[in-house]
Amino acid sequence: MTTGIPIRRACVVLLLAVALLVVPLNAGHAAAAPSSGAPNPSPTSTVEKQKLAKTRFVANAGLAAGATYQWIVKPAKAGKFKKGAHGRTVTFIKAGLAGAFAYNRLKAASDNAKGDPTLSKLMAPVNASIASLKALPAKLRSGDGADAAAKSYDDVINKVKDAGKSAGADVTNKVPSLSELKSGAGSGP
After folding, report:
1. 46-184 is classed CATH 1.10.10
2. Residue 18's pLDDT band (cuts 50, 70, 90)
């Protein structure tokens, strides 16, 4: 009688092991079959693609505008980049991160604009200005010409906002958190 209990346990363990191996294998085949025949969830018509391009443009440009205003333009207006200003070093670090983040998001917005013919035409002259911002984050971090860099960022952001407004895509500032700045400054579009 005492030998029956370990055999039962062994059988139960064996059945559970087989069930755990067989069920995931069948579930994988069952899940793969419907998805291969399902339609792709991407926009199909050109109107949907254009709407999606404008939406992405507004989101990326809004993040760039918010970061620029919060951590570059506002501190510059408050004189936080000047020698002797309280928290100057931290302000430069934040401005450098915000500059890299804004450049990255503006490049993404520029790529998004290519999906809408009107927005693409309006953004064409602004793209050179966006490219000129590439070297400015290093200037903001080091403090060399920080006020001029802040003005350059503000000018480019205003050009992007004007282009968006002319295409019917109003851009409003959306301030990213500091953690978003740190993680998003180097991410791709």
Report:
1. no
2. low
